[in-house]
Write a structure and sequence with these properties.
This protein is mainly alpha-helical and 157 residues long. It has helices spanning 19-33, 48-51, 53-62, 78-89, 101-117, 129-133, 137-152; strands spanning 41-44, 65-68. The protein is globular.
């Protein structure tokens, strides 16, 4: 997640956690987004995959600064915790376990598309993460302000 725009910039569903999977994901996200990773900060939990030698060496190779949550503190990253809460409380969240990996991936893909492109995020002035990430939030906010001002005008008799 990009903290500034709240946009989900990459995700992957896997059978299990591993340093290799995490390293592949961060490499893919930087490549696909055309992001120069030098100086980025990746904040993660203290789990084994994020501290594994493959992940740490990948971060060093890319020039990404690792940042880890404090031990035994479940809410050290409020941005990801807010995202997880939104995910778990969306009306589309399944009541039953997913049937297989493919159905899980389809559900996550739909959620990410909704979250990035439709969800009006309260922490970023009720624009979507995509609008903020792509720099069009100012146009959206200007149109919203113009509509608000027109609505305030007295009705013509």
């Amino acid at each position: 997640m990009d903290v500034w725009s709240r946009r989900i910039v990459g995700w992957r569903v896997a059978q299990g956690e591993s340093a290799n999977t995490a390293a592949e994901l961060i490499t893919q996200v930087c490549r696909d987004a055309g992001v120069d990773p030098l100086g980025l900060v990746l904040h993660s939990d203290n789990g084994k995959p994020m501290r594994g030698s493959t992940m740490v060496s990948t971060l060093q190779w890319l020039g990404i600064v690792p940042s880890f949550s404090r031990p035994h503190v479940s809410d050290d990253n409020p941005y990801s915790e807010a995202l997880f809460r939104t995910l778990k409380h969306t009306p589309a969240y399944p009541r039953q376990p997913f049937a297989d990996l493919a159905s899980t991936e389809r559900w996550v893909a739909r959620f990410v598309a909704w979250y990035n492109g439709e969800h009006r995020h309260s922490a970023i002035r009720f624009v979507t993460p995509d609008e903020r990430h792509h720099g069009i939030e100012h146009d959206v906010l200007a149109r919203r302000h113009e509509l608000h001002e027109r609505a305030r005008l007295p009705l013509a008799s």
